[in-house]
Amino acid sequence: MSSETAPVTELMNILRVEREAIRAADLGALTGLADQKQRALARLENPSSEQLLALRQMATENERLLAAALQGVRAAQTRLKTIMIAARGFDSYDASGRRAPIRRDGSAFERRA
């Protein structure tokens, strides 16, 4: 492997590992990979346009996967927040249109064995 292709190959391998970490939801592994990417980028000298294109495509795909993962985490947070609010109770309206809070207390629910 020539000295020009070694940093490119290393960076491509890091991007592959990063893709697999994102797909496996191992987001903790991304911190160490970011440091490795920075070091590999610092050693990158005069890559060919084909190499740059390949690296850009891999990085763009990883960015897309990360954005999708973040969207999923945010959706889960929103859903959990909704569940937590619903667990405390909710407001309804009585026949005359006044708000009537319905709260969860221990006596309001029948528990069956």
Give an account of the 3D structure.
- The protein has 113 residues and is mainly α.
- It has one domain.
- It is built from 3 helices and 2 strands.
- It has helices spanning 5-23, 29-43, 49-88, and strands at residues 89-93, 99-103.
- The chain has a two-stranded antiparallel sheet.
- Helix 1 packs antiparallel against helix 2 and helix 1 runs parallel beside helix 3 (49-88).
- The longest helix is centred in the middle third of the chain and has 40 residues, at 49-88.
- The model has no long low-confidence stretch (mean pLDDT 87).
Key phrases:
mainly alpha; 65% helix; rod-shaped
Write the layout of secondary structure elements.
Blueprint: H1 5-23, H2 29-43, H3 49-88, E1 89-93, E2 99-103
Antiparallel strand pairs: 1-2
Helix pairs in contact: 1-2, 1-3
Biggest sheet, open or closed, and with what strands and sense? 2 strands, antiparallel
What is the CA-atom radius of gyration, in angstroms? 26 Å
Order of helices and strands: HHHEE
Q: What is the residue-mean pLDDT, rounded to a whole number? A: 87
Strand content: 5-15%
Overview in brief:
This protein is mainly alpha-helical and 113 residues long.
